[in-house]
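Why does residue order matter? Because the sequence determines the fold. Keep that principle in mind as you read this record.
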Amino acid sequence: MNIINKRGFASDNNSGVHPNILNAIIDANNGHTIAYGDDPYTAQAVSKFKQIFGNNIDVFFVFIGSAANVLGLKAVTEQYNAIICSDTAHINVDECGAPERFTGCKLLTVSTPDGKLTVDLIKKHMHGFGFQHHAQPKVISISQTTELGTLYQPHEIKVIADYAHENGLLLHMDGARLANAAVALDLDFRKFTNDVGVDILSFGGTKNGMMYGEAVIFFNTEFSKDFMYTRKQSLQLASKMRYIAAQFNAYLSNNQWYETASHSNRMAQILANKVKDISGITITQKVEANGVFAIIPRNVIQTLQNEYFFYVWDEDKSEVRWMTSWDTTEDDIENFTKRLKELI
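Structure:
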């Protein structure tokens, strides 16, 4: 079997690039234009973001999601600050310590059964203000969707944002799968970000059919006045930015983001429905977007992974994660679940 083209359920990062995105890159590959973002493609993409989120925002493009998270956090913190997040947050688990290294901040984690922070959970870290021996909490960071595939409702985000602001903190949102959340919530992006008090947003497209490129969005431009220098110094200023911008222009046009996210969410529901009644399978989280988390018999994992790659989420519990993508097919799911039944 050709491992390069092997299909599976490991990550929505593993899928290819949507043809409409590829065509947008090709269309942008015409002649010369000014580098470093002073081009019409970037201006158009920024304009599209302002149409979605409101005019009083600043938008900066970077290469990857980890950079969007780290630099967005760096822009609003000092090295003596602390960032409160879930213990499962991407900034805590999957960014190789980059948030702490590049911001200088301490991450204060909270154990969450479903990946979602609440004010009651956050309060354990809300102490030591003005005490020189204690890292000073400055930002609360949430993920939408969470790393466990669950969703914050808009009112839940607003409660956290209000609590943050009442205590002099800011709210950051990791929106790597923001499109999946918008589809699942049946809401415009703005309704559960800017309108409910999010201060900094990492807006992702890579997991939903783009090749690369993420956006850092500041809903208060006072926080971003020096960000262009931070982005440059952090090696995230693209010289040929038009190729990131062109992708976002396509992604944010003609319901492109909505169609791909809708498809991946629907595939997750089909997958969950097919596996939930298989003996020995226990779905552990609500399937609200494009992730299915399940406990399966330990003895089938390796064989199944060899045929349809996926990740083990919690080895102690034999819990696995299956992610669906914009290009997942019902045949993929049918063949996978058939093999799973055979092994069990």
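The longest helix spans residues 256-275.
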